Amino acid sequence: MLMITNSVDFLPHHRTAVLASVDVVGAVTLDDLNRPTPCADWTLLDLLAHMTVQHRGFAAAARGFGDDAELWQPETVLALVTADPAGTYAAAAHDVLDAFARDGAADGEFDLPDFGPGAKVPGAMAMGFHFVDYAVHGWDVATTIGAPYGLPADVVAAVLPLALAVPDGDFREATGSPFARPVDVDRGGDFERILAHLGRRP
Predict the structure, then answer these.
(1) SS3 of 172, please?
(2) What range(s) does the Mycothiol-dependent maleylpyruvate isomerase metal-binding domain occupy (predicted)?
(3) Domain range for residue 120?
């Protein structure tokens, strides 16, 4: 399991990464939704539904009611994402940023039913999970639609140790896993190391 300290010094960088994902999703058109993505077996619609519902779930968890498993089901947002991918995604992204910015949000526990019934994770650790996801998922969307994507060097430096702490294992081969097994890369910088460790081929 990803381990981080109780520090949330990375939150300004997290915000930058999430807003970068909003920008790239803003370029998605309805004609793009059936495109395949770097996430195995997911179309862009599947990926955006996952990203949107995860924002909603983490926002609820930060506010103390993430234990409602229905909030985490991608099917609940498919119609909204299909109708307005950019607007639906942006609303969810800004909601989670607001929730994470609440005083004391990082100090409690987050209910994360995606980890199993009754699963609870320290708030700062949960925010670290979210940071890793959206640094990488922004790249997934950009790659799918052929758009440019890059994160500032300080954001990459902040997310690098969190991403490299994600363990390898058979769980990465499970259906619906957001990360595949690590791949070897022989060139590239720190962001390419992150992508490769999380099963992408930069």
Answers:
(1) helix
(2) 20-142
(3) 11-153
120: amino acid identity, one letter: K
The torsion angles phi and psi of 36, rounded to 5 degrees, stand at -70, 155
CATH of the domain at 46: 1.20.120.450
Write down the pTM of the prediction: 0.89
Measured in whole angstroms, the distance separating CA 124 from the mean position of its chain's CA atoms is 15
User: Tokens representing 196?
Assistant: 């490769």
Give Dmax over CA atoms of the chain in angstroms: 44
Span 89-107, pLDDT tens digits: 999 999 999 999 999 999 9
Look at residue 94 and tell me if it is in a domain. Answer: yes
Residues 162-196 as b or e (16 or more Cβ within 10 Å = b): bbeebeeeeebeeeeebbeebeeeeeeeebebbbb
